[in-house]
Amino acid sequence: MFRPVFLLTLLLVAPAVAAEEMAPGGAYVSDPAHTSVTWRVGHFGMSHYTARFTKIAAELDWKPEAPEQSMLFVTIDPASVRTDFPFPEVEDFDGKIGTAADFLAGTPIRFASERIEVDGDDTGKVYGALTMRGETHPAVIDVTFNGSLASHPMTKVATLGFSGTMAINRSDWGFTFAVPAISDAVDVLIESEFKPQGAQ
Fold first, then answer.
1. Is position 14 within any domain?
2. Least buried of 28, 37, 182, 183, by fewest C-beta within 10 Å?
3. CA separation (Å) from 38 to 3, 26, 81, 96?
């Protein structure tokens, strides 16, 4: 059973800073001001249609001494999709993408990590279960660990930073609208900073 939280990323290896300057292990949550999930699909071979989600929540159980033992839980509200459709008076395109049965169907998008592999000094893969449109299938996030601070110079709290990418075929989740004119392949770009759970 998935815990309600967003959708994000994780992995790493300790950066080359003194241990006392690194963020400690423990429970972290995504900082909404510094977290984004952007996705794109091919559009008739002419361009990549790009959109983003604005309501993302992620929880990370961070273990800096053994990052492969960390755990990540993510939840995205599909109704928070933003396409910047230029004619809102003609159609509520964001609402259609986020909630219509042929699209994201209004059901939470969730990712729960199951296994983490560290494959470089600051890179790794997070294997997990991605739930979308009420269906759950395997997915992988390729993650880069950007750094760790015991005290961020602006927020004054411990901070972790990650970048991630994910590639899926939306048809695996029954999302087949307009394939192949609109590509089956979806590229996802993730950026997130994490702060200790309970921190302001």
1. no
2. 182
3. 22, 27, 9, 18
